[in-house]
């Protein structure tokens, strides 16, 4: 399980946050969201390398934060692409050849705990691709372009997908390269492996492992961290 490489895509602009800056730099309990997201992997004995992928204008700041918070497992801060998928591909290529299993985790998902990460790794053993997700609570309906309901999907078979997601590196690289060659974009990295026919295992996630997308998410993240401190 050791010798994992972590890719943290952090190049999104976070327009829904309305903060006027990359949401990963917003403060959460006195530290940038991105630092919360990276630190769990810095603490894990299973992780050998971390690559952070950022927007061109943010690279200098990310490097300053890496130095300031002494994140010595970060081996590269590289420039992202036009889409998240392009950024992940760049991050994977920045890992050393020794890394054979890759974990992808959102830079705006700061509440993953070390305990949940290690449980995820344990349950992902033996699978070439595994992702974290939680069962949906609401009834999900499919609609057409006019807003007319066309189907009610079976809730017990649906999951809201989170990160981390873990992959055998050769399969992840194959999926990304084949997608890039034909201009195919998936909704996440797992969807690329699904697209070329590789099985992906779903592993139960955590309700607290939220992605910070809106101001309400930031408020909720602060409440969750405050509860953990108690």
From TrEMBL:
CDD domains: CDP-ME_synthetase (cd02516). Coiled coil: none annotated. The keyword Metal-binding does not apply. GO terms for biological process: isopentenyl diphosphate biosynthetic process, methylerythritol 4-phosphate pathway. Pathway: Isoprenoid biosynthesis; isopentenyl diphosphate biosynthesis via DXP pathway; isopentenyl diphosphate from 1-deoxy-D-xylulose 5-phosphate: step 2/6. It comes from the Bacteria. PROSITE patterns: ISPD. The record marks 16, 23 as: Transition state stabilizer. InterPro entries: IspD, IspD/TarI, IspD/TarI_cytidylyltransf_bact, ISPD_synthase_CS, Nucleotide-diphossugar_trans. The record marks 155, 211 as: Positions MEP for the nucleophilic attack. Keywords: Isoprene biosynthesis, Nucleotidyltransferase, Transferase. Belongs to the IspD/TarI cytidylyltransferase family. IspD subfamily. HAMAP family: IspD. This is 2-C-methyl-D-erythritol 4-phosphate cytidylyltransferase. The gene is ispD.
